[in-house]
Queue: 2 jobs
Job 1
Amino acid sequence: MKFPNRIFHDIKDERVIEAINTIPRELFVPDELRDYAYKDSALPIGYGQTISQPSLVAYMTQLLDLTDDKNVLEIGTGSGYQTALLAKLANKVFTIEIIEPLQKRAKEVLKQLGIDNIVYKLGNGYEGWEEYAPYDAILVAAAPPKVPEKLLAQLKDKGKMVIPVGKPGRTQMLKLITRDGDEFIEEDLQYVRFVPMIEG
Ligand code: SAH
């Protein structure tokens, strides 16, 4: 199955579209929702969490300017769908999830697809993952009320972070943050609705 092209009208980076079209989204959604896998909508994946809509997954990925020499930190593995796309475009993905059964399921699907440049951690994304820092790119898939300092500290110089920021239950602002030495340049992109980032 393929997505209708129009859902990627905002995506200028052909590599992102090519890569997303190689990932079977139906494997990342619950069996009973497979008929909706190629529609541009977010879907529930259990435990109160959701898989984001594919157009947003592609858009957030495009913002990171990934190449196959870059390492990415992802906060919120969820279904593993976004992880798969990052893994296709980057060197390595370090992904953190706080809900164990979601991580287990994501790992199984990604293994089944033969995507093996992913390192998994069960833990709290607010802490980031010091061991492999700094990262060329950081993608946050759950919304904290403000940008976590520890994540900023783990971003490489000239690196980019994409993150939804806002209070739980409200719309959040999707931000692109680019590091320039000790400075962080923040751009507000669009309103989005993500699940809240769970406090440790
Ligand atoms: N990109 C995912 C979307 C996941 S939804 C996908 O494509 O499926 C957000 C995920 O962030 C959920 O799985 C949730 O459990 C996880 N999460 C929430 N708070 C977190 C935290 N503090 N640390 C790590 N993961 C967290």
Job 2
Amino acid sequence: MNQIKSILLVLICCFPLATFSQNDYKLWLQYDSIEDSELKQSYLDAFKAINVMGNSPSLDVSHKEISKAYHSFFNEELKTAESGDGLLILANIDQLPANMRSDVKSDIENINSEGYIIMSLEQNGNKVILITAKTDIGVLYGSFRLIKEMQLHNDLSNLAIIDSPKIQKRVLNHWDNLDRTVERGYAGFSIWDWHLLPELIKPEYTDYARANASIGINGTVLTNVNANSLILTEQYIEKVKALAEVFRPYGIQVYLTARFSAPLESGDVDTADPLNAEVRQWWKDKADEIYAEIPDFGGFLVKANSEGQPGPNNYDRTHVDGANMLAEAVAPHNGIVMWRAFVYSEDDPEDRAKQAYSEFVPFDGRFKENVLVQVKNGPIDFQPREPFHPVFGAMPNTPLMMEFQITQEYLGFASHLVFLPKLFEETLEEDTYVNGENSTVAKVIDGSLSNKKLTGMAGVANIGTAKNWTGHPFGQSSWYGFGRLAWDPYMSSEEIAEEWLKMTFTNEEAFIYPVTDLMIKSREAVVKYMTPLGLHHIMDTGHHYGPGPWVSNLSRPEWNPVYYHKADEEGIGFDRTQSGSDALSQYANPIAEKYSSPETTPEKYLLWFHHLPWDYEMDNGETLWHNLATTYQEGVEDVEEMVDTWNNMEEYVDKERFEKVAMLLQIQLKESKWWRDACLSYFQQFSGMEIPESVPQPEHDLEYYKSLEFPFAPGIRPSWE
Ligand code: BDP
């Protein structure tokens, strides 16, 4: 009786509450029970027991993860066994018996240290599945891959999967402050609970590591690029160490941001000059101190002489001096330095889009070999659309690391559904033409274009304390997709969307096709309703939430939207051709040549490179003004379509996630209209032309849109401006 009572209690009290929010927390590692009996049987035939050869924390977590998934898929325990039919073997190649090793001999030569092999083999008349690799981390990645094959309902009867990451450093950048606010974070506070570390180890830390390992992310920068030197003190190193220990079995290295003035701030020396012997020694000692606690510490990420951060220029030294000093300090421990190229100066009248190139390209080949120069995908700043950064391809003798932003600073925060892998893919596929045709950005990043040993990709995280990690349920897909593209920068965004949907929601085709389509179109939708035809950086300043094309009163010219759109009675757009800033000359031919004329510039970049009259005739025969207005409207209509698509999906999604997405899409729809109306009202004063009939008249007058203020918008940078 008591037992029945407690079961009832569990059912009544916990079940309805627990299930849905747990779904959201579990990300793409849902491990939904496999209901199709034929499929289930085929999986149970494929493996009934596991044999983990060898012993290590990474093999342990691999075993644990597979057992967890197995139980969740089949409601059965995965047994352990030494031999027999239907055995799954997990082993580092060194642990493998000679006969099995010879089965994979040639394949093992084709994988790198993090790659893996999954093979169906015959062993003494028994069918077995082997997951093997050169390292235990490779085995872990293989284990997640096998689980994924089941999540995707793929056939397991004849496996021959050989895979390796194409990029080495696959790193999340957390812009997390020590007080737990997150710069440009829209999913709550920082997940790092510094105050309670190192004693309190939250289960979220492990789940964070599992999620990242499942997509191959192998590094995390714990702290904001606008750095606080306190993180380098003994008190904090102990806390960092505690996190590193949780992450280590999952193959994730921790990195910290290094505030350039840390030696000075520590009070130990009275300068931070990178050529000063005491300063150099200070960094060496600091590195030794960190590595003594965290032997696999990854290294430092540095934002120097950018937006008020201290750097070598403060001492009349160069980025090379600064980066090489830190590189020397971490080199004995195999550490690296990720030195950011996101620099632009308030005193420099040069077009902001040109400054990083002007400053860094002359340094090509002068950085030490453990330095990666980290470059944002575009030359301005994480806009809904930018052409690729001209530095890619222009520094063949320097390893360049890609920096994408996963958090949606300029793309509607965590309220808008925007599937960012579509944006990432567009940049990676762009041809730089530096070594002739097909010199894509992906090839620069994976090192194949100029034979680079050190390679990397960074993503500014969208993760916070929100129960579902990312605020918007679909924000998870951009985290997922970043990891997949860091592993393989040639993957298609469609494939990524499909995988993520199946793993996160359901395998039902009637769900997968329309929602994949929705995700893929979501990126172009945001471009249309925020910054069509090459417009950029017209978000309201400071918080970057909502439209603010009118803003012109900030002290630094390049912080004002009017700097970027340059709208006046004559026309609109930034002339970056020879008659303007000539930023175009930083690109190789044929791009430079082709984009020098508006007629041959792709319309998506038109106003990025050209200032054109309002009545300029576009490809479709209409005026520029007409197309600007109708494109804004198309953006709104795209969101309407997204709303409709989602509303038809109710039967496939749990109530909580369904409703949350539906409500957020309503916000997105409302805000897309706000963008259209505010921008068209503003630009119309210059064009003096009528809004086309197919586009609704703005709901309010311009003064209304200008009057809107958002002092408490999330993610704002403290003491910004
Ligand atoms: C800009 C953000 C600012 C960051 C900066 C950076 O507005 O908060 O500190 O980039 O990347 O996008 O350093």
